[in-house]
């Protein structure tokens, strides 16, 4: 058996913490690496030791294989666990570890090499007899050849980065006229994300399910599968909800897909944890999509239904043990569903968000699991992926798991920056998902290009006013001496009233709050009246009764005017305009386009003096591994260019100013 007493985790965030948890349970010492941007990150705090490896950008830190390997040697690490992303599928890094006498917790380099290139992988699978989607995966990468191959396959097609994953370098093309533009964009995004611009073209299977099989193999030729995960619910080809088992799986279909997945692994002499991904069409036919030669983000749902620790299996296989179980011994029990909590704004085209996390709170209840890389007081950086946590629920049946997950999310709060908590709850409550009928087209079918943000309710305004009033009262009380609690709401003219104004759409809504005693209030909003009782109120949690309905809340006040609130139904950020000067918060003008987040300005597609129309692309900003085309909000003439290509910009920096066309 190989020595494995000290493990370096070449990753960050929740997966680094996840690996450390199992390593610690096995008596293995852990070493974290971190960038300057992650100096105070949760994974650094969780490790036995931690070493800084460079600046914030991944190219200066987490992708520096030489630096990470040097740290492993200096710190006496026996093994390196790459997590997922970053260097996890880098054959050169795996080879360098082996040459240094350090165990790489992953498959052999040849398997990474073949399966890390979609074109080579598909050729290998065709040779091994694994069902594949019709497509083009040859070496000729000229625009002419790619275009002609796509036309020969027939629209619609998927243009995909051969070396990629996570939706980057991927475009769905419906019309031949869109081909060249899609190929150019995919080339650029693939080169920036993976260092390779090679593409493949595949026939687009419309409304399939995305079903993957978890496989495991040891050095002695034993290979098993641990059932499937349905990962069909996606946005921009990135997974949002995963579950096990697949709602439409049958014993025969599972056996066939499992056999194909094992065949794919054996074709490349696989060792360790891997995932073979398939597209499952409505007729029950399935096609090889790709193989991820690492632990998947969604591996916990497999752990929940099998009762196994997949990281433990990885570490045991890495140190030369046989697989803990045979195929006949692996059983699937119950159902598990996972959602990915992202720092992004679903109501603004799923734009990634960055900034401080004022509060991250989750419930502790049976059957509910949270794998997170952040805590209250941390920040989401522009340098890395926008996922902040994986939230899971397990139940005896699929409906048990779904309801438990909805309830857990309703008791979860991520306050401080836009996120998709409310959107996830809405997804899980959609009838199509509840019935187990969701395909890869589910989000687009339900919401179109982007979901519509629900209007702020009067109830939300009342909650904000009451909380802000109580906070103001407590602040005043701390500055006063000897005031009895029952007198805090009293004045010589009778019960006190306070006025709060909040912006709802383009209008201001006013809440008049009148005290009815130390813990009771009447709120007037227009013609509506609300009776409120404050049952309890701590630093970040309160329980209010509004018109007879008990409402637990999480909240954070970031200043006297601004309050963030998460209730079971929604998350709001409300600003009391009554205490702000009239000009506060006004936009600089509809023709001023600012950077929505920190990032790299990849290209500037206009110049001063150019005439533009609403919707024309102005610049391309790369942030959180994705490229974002920023378009003109109005017709007009460009008067200012605020940056140039390959320049880092901060959120709020002016990118372009447009002088509106006079009507």
From TrEMBL:
Pfam families, alphabetized: Biotin_carb_C, Biotin_carb_N, Biotin_lipoyl, CPSase_L_D2
GO terms of molecular function: ATP binding; biotin carboxylase activity; metal ion binding
Pathway: Lipid metabolism; malonyl-CoA biosynthesis; malonyl-CoA from acetyl-CoA: step 1/1
Reaction equation(s) it catalyzes: N(6)-biotinyl-L-lysyl-[protein] + hydrogencarbonate + ATP = N(6)-carboxybiotinyl-L-lysyl-[protein] + ADP + phosphate + H(+)
Superkingdom per UniProt: Bacteria
Keywords: ATP-binding, Biotin, Ligase, Nucleotide-binding, Transit peptide
Coiled-coil residue spans: none
Cofactor(s) required, per the database record: biotin
Database matches in InterPro entries: ATP-grasp, BC-like_N, Biotin_BS, Biotin_carboxylase_complex, Biotin_carboxylation_dom, Biotin_COase_C, Biotin_lipoyl, CPAse_ATP-bd
Protein task: This protein is a component of the acetyl coenzyme A carboxylase complex; first, biotin carboxylase catalyzes the carboxylation of the carrier protein and then the transcarboxylase transfers the carboxyl group to form malonyl-CoA.
Subunit and interaction comment: Acetyl-CoA carboxylase is a heterohexamer of biotin carboxyl carrier protein, biotin carboxylase and the two subunits of carboxyl transferase in a 2:2 complex.
Name this protein carries in UniProt: Biotin carboxylase
Organism whose genome encodes this protein: Aequoribacter fuscus
């Amino acid at each position: 058996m190989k020595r494995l007493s000290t493990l370096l985790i070449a990753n960050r965030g929740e997966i680094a913490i996840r690996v450390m948890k199992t390593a610690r349970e096995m008596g293995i010492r852990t070493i974290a690496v971190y960038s300057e941007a992650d100096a105070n990150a949760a994974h650094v705090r969780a490790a036995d030791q931690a070493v800084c490896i460079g600046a914030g950008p991944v190219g200066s830190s987490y992708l520096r294989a030489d630096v990470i390997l040097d740290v492993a040697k200096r710190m006496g690490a026996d093994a390196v666990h790459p997590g997922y992303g970053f260097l996890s599928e880098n054959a050169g890094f795996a080879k360098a570890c082996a040459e240094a006498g350090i165990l790489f917790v992953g498959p052999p380099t040849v398997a990474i090499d073949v399966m890390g290139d979609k074109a080579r992988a598909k050729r290998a699978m065709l040779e091994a007899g694994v069902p594949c989607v019709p497509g083009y995966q040859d070496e000729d990468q000229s625009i002419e050849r790619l275009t002609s191959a796509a036309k020969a396959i027939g629209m619609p097609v998927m243009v995909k980065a051969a070396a990629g994953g996570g939706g980057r370098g991927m475009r769905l093309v419906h019309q031949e006229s869109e081909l060249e533009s899609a190929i150019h964009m995919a080339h650029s995004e693939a080169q920036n994300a993976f260092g390779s611009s090679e593409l493949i073209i595949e026939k687009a299977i419309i409304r399939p399910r995305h079903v993957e099989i978890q496989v495991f193999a040891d050095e002695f030729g034993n290979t098993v599968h641990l059932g499937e995960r349905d990962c069909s619910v996606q946005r921009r080809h990135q997974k949002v909800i995963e579950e096990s088992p697949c709602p439409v799986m049958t014993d025969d279909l599972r056996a066939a897909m499992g056999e194909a997945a094992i065949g794919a692994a054996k074709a490349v002499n696989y060792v360790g944890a891997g995932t073979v991904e398939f597209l499952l069409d409505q007729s029950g036919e399935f096609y090889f999509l790709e193989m991820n030669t690492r632990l998947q983000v969604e591996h916990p749902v497999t752990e929940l239904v099998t009762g196994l620790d997949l990281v433990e299996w990885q570490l045991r296989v890495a140190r030369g043990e046989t697989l803990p179980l045979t195929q006949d011994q692996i059983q699937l029990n119950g159902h598990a569903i996972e959602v990915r909590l992202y720092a992004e704004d679903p109501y603004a085209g799923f734009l990634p968000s960055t900034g401080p996390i004022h509060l991250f709170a989750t419930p502790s209840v049976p059957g509910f699991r949270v794998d997170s890389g952040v805590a209250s007081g941390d920040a989401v950086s522009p340098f890395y992926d926008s996922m902040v946590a994986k939230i899971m629920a397990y139940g005896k049946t699929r409906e048990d798991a779904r309801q438990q997950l909805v309830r857990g999310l309703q008791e979860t709060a991520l306050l401080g920056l836009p996120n998709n908590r409310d959107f996830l709850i809405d997804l899980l409550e959609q009838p199509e998902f509840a019935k187990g009928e969701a395909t890869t087209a589910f989000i687009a079918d339900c919401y179109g290009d982007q979901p519509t943000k629900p209007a702020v309710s009067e109830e939300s305004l009342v909650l904000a006013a009451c909380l802000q009033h109580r906070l103001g009262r407590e602040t005043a009380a701390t500055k006063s001496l000897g005031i009895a609690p029952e007198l805090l709401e009293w004045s010589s003219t009778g019960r006190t009233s306070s006025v709060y104004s909040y912006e709802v759409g383009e209008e201001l809504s006013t809440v008049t709050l009148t005290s009815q005693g130390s813990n009771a209030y009447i709120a007037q909003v227009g013609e509506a009246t609300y009776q409120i009782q404050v049952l309890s109120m701590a630093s970040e949690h309160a329980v209010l009764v509004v018109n007879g309905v008990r409402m637990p809340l999480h909240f954070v006040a970031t200043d006297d005017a601004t309050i963030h609130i998460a209730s079971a139904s929604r998350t709001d950020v409300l600003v009391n305009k009554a205490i702000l000067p009239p000009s506060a918060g006004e936009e600089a003008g509809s023709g001023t386009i600012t950077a929505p987040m920190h990032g790299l300005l990849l290209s500037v597609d206009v110049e001063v003096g150019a005439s533009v129309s609403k919707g024309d692309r102005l610049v391309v900003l790369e942030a959180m591994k994705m490229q974002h085309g920023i378009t003109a909000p109005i017709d007009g003439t460009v008067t200012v260019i605020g940056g140039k290509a390959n320049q880092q910009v901060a959120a709020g920096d002016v990118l372009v100013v447009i002088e509106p066309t006079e009507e």
